[in-house]
Amino acid sequence: MDAELTRAIGDLLAAHDPATTPVADFLGARFDAGLAWVHFPEGLGGRSAPRATQQEVNDAFAAAGAPTLDSGRHGIGLGMAAPTLLAHGSEEVRRRFLRPLWTGEEVWCQLFSEPGAGSDLAALGTRAVQEEETGDWIVDGQKVWTSLAHEADWAILVTRTDPDVPKHRGMTYFVCDMHAPGVEVRPLRQATGEAEFNEVFLSGVRIPDAHRLGAVGDGWRVAQTTLMNERVAIGGHAEPREGGMIGVLARTWRERPDLHTPALQDAVLRLWVDAEAARLTSERLRQQLAAGQPGPEGSAAKLAFARLNQQISGLELELLGAEGLEYEDYSFRRPANPSMIGGSPGYRYLRAKGNSIEGGTSEILRGIIAERVLGLPQEIRVDKDVAWKDLPR
Amino acid sequence: MDAELTRAIGDLLAAHDPATTPVADFLGARFDAGLAWVHFPEGLGGRSAPRATQQEVNDAFAAAGAPTLDSGRHGIGLGMAAPTLLAHGSEEVRRRFLRPLWTGEEVWCQLFSEPGAGSDLAALGTRAVQEEETGDWIVDGQKVWTSLAHEADWAILVTRTDPDVPKHRGMTYFVCDMHAPGVEVRPLRQATGEAEFNEVFLSGVRIPDAHRLGAVGDGWRVAQTTLMNERVAIGGHAEPREGGMIGVLARTWRERPDLHTPALQDAVLRLWVDAEAARLTSERLRQQLAAGQPGPEGSAAKLAFARLNQQISGLELELLGAEGLEYEDYSFRRPANPSMIGGSPGYRYLRAKGNSIEGGTSEILRGIIAERVLGLPQEIRVDKDVAWKDLPR
Amino acid sequence: MSGLDLNYSEVEEELRANVRALLADRAPANVTLARTEAEQTTDLALWRSLADELGVTGLPVPEELGGAGASWRETAVVLEELGRAVAPVPFFGSCVLATAALLAVGERKVLSQLASGEAVGALTVPFATAPGPGFPSGVHADDGLLSGTVRHVADALVADVLLVPALAGDGTPELYLVTGAQVEPMVSLDMTRQLAVVTLDRVEGVLLASGAEAAAAVGLALETGAALLASEQLGVAEWALTTTVAYAKERHQFGRPIGGFQAVKHRLADLWVLVSQMRAVARAGADAAASGADLPLTAALAQAFASGAAVTATEEAVQLHGGIGFTWEHPAHLYLKRAKSASLALGTADRHRARISELINL
Amino acid sequence: MSGLDLNYSEVEEELRANVRALLADRAPANVTLARTEAEQTTDLALWRSLADELGVTGLPVPEELGGAGASWRETAVVLEELGRAVAPVPFFGSCVLATAALLAVGERKVLSQLASGEAVGALTVPFATAPGPGFPSGVHADDGLLSGTVRHVADALVADVLLVPALAGDGTPELYLVTGAQVEPMVSLDMTRQLAVVTLDRVEGVLLASGAEAAAAVGLALETGAALLASEQLGVAEWALTTTVAYAKERHQFGRPIGGFQAVKHRLADLWVLVSQMRAVARAGADAAASGADLPLTAALAQAFASGAAVTATEEAVQLHGGIGFTWEHPAHLYLKRAKSASLALGTADRHRARISELINL
């Protein structure tokens, strides 16, 4: 880290004691000092520094006890909306949205998936039609699997603006005000009993043209920026040995000798080995990516993590035997802070089933690896030259 | 079994003591009595009896100690050539070939696969061109994976007769004299070191038009009869508990307590359970099919058998540890009577790798099950309306 | 396991058709899902229909005791259909476990009540109990008064009579009939078969059998249960396969049915093979229960195989349905929960493999 | 396993490029296949090139002893490339097992001969020996005279010196240097690493270490071997992946490259993930061997993971090549045999998992 950065951090910490400054104020000051995302431009939370230095800056603030945002509540904003706003937003949009996103004053969610457009996101049908007089867009449709929709102020939203061209070409990307009239959020209950996600119904929602990201019809390209960052965000963090789900299983094994059988022991050890291999792989990727751009390799980490979580949580129930027949609570609720590891063994087992579906199914990820990493031929596309409106559904 | 059949068997046994009659004579008498394939027409080894009675007839002869042919040497003739000759051969062809096939006086092999046409058999390129003057066909090309080619008298052969139409439509099926000029058989050595199969080079081989099965251009349909019978032949026989590969592993486990570990024991037990499930499944299919026609269900038995053989033989080496590092003999040889179970553990391991390739790869079998049993959509065909000669290779 | 009849008779297929038609009518998925959040999680109306309209509650019970004089094979066919519908009725507890125990001790009165369906019985053992050596030790008998707590009891919530294995003061195994126990529901992973805690505090019981006879009765009930549970698991897996294949034909992504994508096709083909194998194993279990031949080994095989297979089938169903399969509204989770719970019921596959090891010296 | 460096340095990548270029030139598949049926199954000319032209035989040996003064990390990179070519050279036996043992006891003379490649060494233990407690007991020492038979010894066929663990009359572990043993080839599953039977009949040996020092040296050699074998296994698996992907792009069936069929694509994607994981595990093993930190656990992890992974990779290669992959002429079988044999070498995955269990109380 160069001297200038070190000095800037020192100045900031001197002026704003992390222990006493309110979080939003501290983060605001960090943004204004260009120390939020150092590779962002000046005035937008950065200072056009090399991306590689970000980790060191974060480490320096962490060492000083500086506050950060809760990644559960702000992960979509920080991990997905911010890079997309930076890459495709107008100067006005970036200035309006990046700072309150960074300080946590505004919460973001993601309006992408639809009932008819899951893996095939580009099939989405939420219509946006531009009003001639005002230039505003009027949006109608339904989105699903929206975390935080009930708490969010803003959403990143992909819509269909031209149904008469092939699907990838007729989409447009917007920032959507979640408090706008016509936005209705309903909890989406899942197999665990709780509702971690939402369905969002959009009825005549008005979005100013200024809140468009990228050109009309260019929404697919813009969405790629978001998705690429999503996959990395999911698989990219460092984990200590026996972190995550395997740690839970190892603890249960050590604390419950009454449950031991030789066959189960070997099963536990197999998963320990696999989990450690996956952890080292993520760690190796993290070391490689420290300076680089996210690539399709992140897909492999997510793929491995989903499979492991499912195998480990499945074995935990088998190990527990009788106790595995119980559950904690199926009553409907919205968890304040959902955790895949917390909860009971039964919850872990059920929740892990979502890991290979949410944020890109394992099937889609295998396809990405096969095509983008290994260079194997793409799937034969029957929908390439067909107008969106004529696609079979 | 009706009285007439019982009497016919009794008469035959009375006239030809199985203990003293030469095998070919006994079988010839059985053929002439219409007791070879009872559902075949009279004069062709049968008596147009229900197919379902065949098993009882076989059992009756077996109980009397009557001879049968070695299924290794005559399996292709009995299992594949005979039903195809019956279904598609001219009266002349059936009369000429079925009796010596049944008595074992003539050995058959199958000239189907080619280096460029494995799973995609219909892509085959061995050319047959009809001579105008004689009506004879002149055949040039190369076949592979031909068991028994070096011992066979006759072959069932599929050729390309019209390269200008899509591949399924330009094929013709023949009976080929393996002693004809231009037939050259070379052993094809495999990973085990030995050569169980052959390559067969056909150079200007002359086949009379009378030895054609089915119409010109109808070879694909004729070949289906052969292939359907092949899959059943492979998976359809009853097996006692701990028969086959699992019996070898179970014996090793019981005889070698010095090799036991708890984890390996569970692995052995898992495979025992899977093998027993597969055995019961074949047995159930056998009970169902006793009276019926072979269907795609036979594919499942072959699929399961290949996977099990590979898993079991792999585990056997792991169990043996140090001894698994040895092999018996890699020197080139042609086994007189190849067995996947015989030989050393290393041989079993290597040979089992062929089980998921030979006679229809496991990938092809999964496709058959998906499409023909489950009714899932067929693969998108890019070769359907393309002349054979224009296909990418 | 030789000489097993692994197919279905015409009578069995007819029985299946009747049960299936009734369940399609009275227990569609939305009704079953709603039932899981009702006050009463057992569908007693459906139960009455099974008993009164179809008369399937006493299939293995002799006709002179009010049963149908059929066998465990037919019972297994009913279980397949109940599994396919994850029907919330106490059939397994009453018509399999309790009935098997009563048949074993030669009891007649309660047996005929269970056979007619006018009473529901439950075998008061933890549902995870594996067959084999060992006798449940949760309840102690003191001068005919029973005390103890048994958790995870299947179908006890609506039971009129409990069959309670208990240990006498000197450790002798005994089997009692009890009617006045305290039964409390447990939050159960399996939403369509809610388990219960049975608490006995010096409750009077009627002694049915003692010593080796009691031990044998409980052992036979558990073994019969393990052998027949595979049929229920088969039904669960068949639902998973059938429903997923249908969904794969209808759900379009990328302009094509997802069932046309080869990776999906191959997985469904593998699943079909697995379910075919489950069917053979389940039929072997039912046939062995009916004949008694080689039952310990066949029951262990049935559970060692079917437990994991049903879990695999329902996990694949959830995965291949994508997001919708993970929602509360879609019934896939009911089957997943049933399959996973059933894999723990009557002993995990691990224990059954260990039992096979003892039985055949492997 | 914290603070591990899991990547390759520029020096390591350069080393890899040099070794790969040499092997591509001198050890193409057809040459290696033919060598397996030659009188001498070891390619001594290739060995000389590795030693003299590239100087890779003494990477972990200090420069003052004639080595390159690098570390086991660089040795691991060489092993990756040797695995990728299934090169029939005694590198693993001489430059890993024997070198590690000599480094451990502080021997200098033979070490420098092995480092320069002028002599080949072999550790005279059965190749299946797992690291951990226990000392090889095949040879007994009587007044400095060694007797015994050791089967399945790797790279002994061309060894100039043998490092022989032996037990003294009182059971004390000892380590000897021996030059005059009888060495007979064995028909080995792995055709490119032929094993041997070493027979000693009152042969004189030079005592290198005794007691705890001897035990520690042999233990460290086996642990280092286990940690580094993962790199060789990685090379084998990478060959399998790379070759199969290339074949899948080029081989047409049904008018399309088979690599365009989704089931094949997904399997190759899974294989790529597996090989990526092997790479991380192999690098961890190499780094731990170099630093000595947490070596027992990392070595056990390396073998517990890489053994099965390399077998899977080569099995998939054979399968996805179809018939051609099962022929003698195609090199796939050489890799399959290497992978399966390596999975038994230095202990099966099963034993390594048991070792992990001891080390971390799991």
Automatic annotation (TrEMBL), chains A, B:
<dbReference type="Pfam" id="PF02771">
    <property type="entry name" value="Acyl-CoA_dh_N"/>
</dbReference>
<dbReference type="GO" id="GO:0050660">
    <property type="term" value="F:flavin adenine dinucleotide binding"/>
</dbReference>
<dbReference type="InterPro" id="IPR036250">
    <property type="entry name" value="AcylCo_DH-like_C"/>
</dbReference>
<dbReference type="InterPro" id="IPR009100">
    <property type="entry name" value="AcylCoA_DH/oxidase_NM_dom_sf"/>
</dbReference>
<comment type="similarity">
    <text>Belongs to the acyl-CoA dehydrogenase family.</text>
</comment>
<dbReference type="InterPro" id="IPR006091">
    <property type="entry name" value="Acyl-CoA_Oxase/DH_mid-dom"/>
</dbReference>
<dbReference type="InterPro" id="IPR037069">
    <property type="entry name" value="AcylCoA_DH/ox_N_sf"/>
</dbReference>
<keyword id="KW-0274">FAD</keyword>
<dbReference type="InterPro" id="IPR046373">
    <property type="entry name" value="Acyl-CoA_Oxase/DH_mid-dom_sf"/>
</dbReference>
<feature type="domain" description="Acyl-CoA dehydrogenase/oxidase C-terminal">
    <location>
        <begin position="217"/>
        <end position="374"/>
    </location>
</feature>
<protein>
    <submittedName>
        <fullName>Acyl-CoA dehydrogenase</fullName>
    </submittedName>
</protein>
<dbReference type="Pfam" id="PF02770">
    <property type="entry name" value="Acyl-CoA_dh_M"/>
</dbReference>
<dbReference type="GO" id="GO:0016627">
    <property type="term" value="F:oxidoreductase activity, acting on the CH-CH group of donors"/>
</dbReference>
<dbReference type="Pfam" id="PF00441">
    <property type="entry name" value="Acyl-CoA_dh_1"/>
</dbReference>
<dbReference type="InterPro" id="IPR013786">
    <property type="entry name" value="AcylCoA_DH/ox_N"/>
</dbReference>
<keyword id="KW-0285">Flavoprotein</keyword>
<feature type="domain" description="Acyl-CoA oxidase/dehydrogenase middle">
    <location>
        <begin position="109"/>
        <end position="200"/>
    </location>
</feature>
<feature type="domain" description="Acyl-CoA dehydrogenase/oxidase N-terminal">
    <location>
        <begin position="24"/>
        <end position="105"/>
    </location>
</feature>
<dbReference type="InterPro" id="IPR009075">
    <property type="entry name" value="AcylCo_DH/oxidase_C"/>
</dbReference>
<dbReference type="InterPro" id="IPR052161">
    <property type="entry name" value="Mycobact_Acyl-CoA_DH"/>
</dbReference>
<keyword id="KW-0560">Oxidoreductase</keyword>
<dbReference type="GO" id="GO:0005886">
    <property type="term" value="C:plasma membrane"/>
</dbReference>
From TrEMBL, chains C, D:
<protein>
    <submittedName>
        <fullName>Acyl-CoA dehydrogenase</fullName>
    </submittedName>
</protein>
<keyword id="KW-0285">Flavoprotein</keyword>
<dbReference type="InterPro" id="IPR013786">
    <property type="entry name" value="AcylCoA_DH/ox_N"/>
</dbReference>
<dbReference type="Pfam" id="PF00441">
    <property type="entry name" value="Acyl-CoA_dh_1"/>
</dbReference>
<keyword id="KW-0274">FAD</keyword>
<comment type="similarity">
    <text>Belongs to the acyl-CoA dehydrogenase family.</text>
</comment>
<keyword id="KW-0560">Oxidoreductase</keyword>
<dbReference type="InterPro" id="IPR009075">
    <property type="entry name" value="AcylCo_DH/oxidase_C"/>
</dbReference>
<dbReference type="InterPro" id="IPR009100">
    <property type="entry name" value="AcylCoA_DH/oxidase_NM_dom_sf"/>
</dbReference>
<feature type="domain" description="Acyl-CoA dehydrogenase/oxidase C-terminal">
    <location>
        <begin position="221"/>
        <end position="358"/>
    </location>
</feature>
<dbReference type="Pfam" id="PF02771">
    <property type="entry name" value="Acyl-CoA_dh_N"/>
</dbReference>
<feature type="domain" description="Acyl-CoA dehydrogenase/oxidase N-terminal">
    <location>
        <begin position="10"/>
        <end position="117"/>
    </location>
</feature>
<dbReference type="InterPro" id="IPR037069">
    <property type="entry name" value="AcylCoA_DH/ox_N_sf"/>
</dbReference>
<dbReference type="GO" id="GO:0050660">
    <property type="term" value="F:flavin adenine dinucleotide binding"/>
</dbReference>
<dbReference type="InterPro" id="IPR036250">
    <property type="entry name" value="AcylCo_DH-like_C"/>
</dbReference>
<dbReference type="GO" id="GO:0003995">
    <property type="term" value="F:acyl-CoA dehydrogenase activity"/>
</dbReference>
